[in-house]
DNA sequence: GCAAAGATTTGCT
DNA sequence: GCAAATCTTTGCC
């Protein structure tokens, strides 16, 4: 299987978002190969996008967003969860696609184990019984193993060590591969981005979330803090 | 130097 | 349906 075309990511981010749906996220190391079909992404476009980490210019955290396309931008959100982005557009222009959900194709058992490992690594005051989390994840349908940005990283064992990794290098342990025939999205739907209630319009309202409406792995309507804050405001 | 908030998920009420 | 967990980054003193 060949890696995803860098020229597609180098062009406009909004076009790239539609074309990357259906492509495969592959983690090719460890006991079992993990493959997931990308079914939901969000576009963060340029330094003037007030919802983007790039809105404050280049910082230590977001530096790779300013680099070449096809590179992984991985950050820690809320101090607990990692999020995976695919950098887009030419060097010097900060843009990326946040991978919000993938549909497990291969290695679902390993994804489940990785989810359990991640859950046990962050016990909280409610989590008095480790077996509870274990059983919860064990009972999840495969389609729900990576249906959220933090869950994608948990299921694929992605962390800050992958920041800056070239996802379009066939030798990378984590990479994006072309969609096999028939894997493209059946119907691409769009909507506003999730969890960016702090951003002013027009960025708040831009329909820059793209997903395959035919996939059962797409994440929920958006349960982020910012979204709730907006709802109660 | 310190305070505040975040591209989320979870478990209990 | 809500609040907590947790830590990096940012913005201001």
Overall description:
The structure is a single chain. The protein has helices spanning 6-10, 13-20, 108-121, 130-138, 149-155, 225-232, and strands spanning 24-27, 34-45, 72-77, 81-87, 95-106, 174-177, 188-191, 209-212. By secondary structure, the protein is an alpha+beta fold. It has a single domain (6-232), classed as Methylpurine-DNA glycosylase (MPG) (3-methyladenine DNA Glycosylase, Chain A). Mean pLDDT is 90; it is low at 223-233.
How are the SSEs placed, and which strands pair?
Blueprint lengths: L5 H5 L2 H8 L3 E4 L6 E12 L26 E6 L3 E7 L7 E12 L1 H14 L8 H9 L10 H7 L18 E4 L10 E4 L17 E4 L12 H8 L1
Antiparallel strand pairs: 1-2, 1-6, 2-5, 2-8, 3-4, 4-5, 7-8
Helix pairs in contact: 3-4
The protein binds a DNA duplex (13 and 13 nucleotides) through strand 3, strand 4, helix 4, helix 5 and helix 6.
């Amino acid at each position: 299987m060949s890696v995803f075309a860098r020229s597609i990511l180098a062009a406009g981010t909004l076009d790239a978002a539609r074309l990357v749906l259906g492509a495969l996220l592959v983690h090719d190391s460890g006991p079992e190969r993990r493959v997931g079909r990308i079914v939901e992404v969000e576009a963060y476009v340029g330094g003037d996008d007030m919802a983007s980490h790039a809105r404050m210019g280049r910082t230590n955290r977001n530096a790779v967003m300013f680099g070449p396309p096809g590179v992984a931008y991985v950050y820690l959100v809320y101090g607990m969860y990692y999020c995976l982005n695919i950098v887009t557009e030419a060097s010097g222009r900060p843009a990326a696609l946040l991978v919000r959900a993938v549909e497990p194709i291969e290695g679902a058992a390993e994804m489940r184990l990785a989810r359990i490992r991640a859950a046990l690594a962050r016990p909280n005051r409610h989590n008095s019984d480790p077996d509870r989390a274990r059983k919860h994840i064990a009972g999840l349908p495969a389609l729900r193993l990576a249906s959220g940005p933090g869950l994608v990283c948990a299921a694929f064992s992605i962390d800050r060590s992958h920041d800056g990794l070239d996802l379009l290098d066939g030798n990378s342990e984590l990479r994006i591969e072309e969609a096999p025939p028939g894997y493209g999205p059946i119907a691409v739907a769009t909507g506003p981005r999730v969890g960016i209630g702090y951003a002013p319009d027009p960025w708040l309202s831009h329909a820059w979330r793209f997903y395959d409406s035919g996939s059962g792995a797409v994440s929920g309507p958006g349960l982020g803090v910012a979204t709730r804050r907006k709802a109660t405001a």
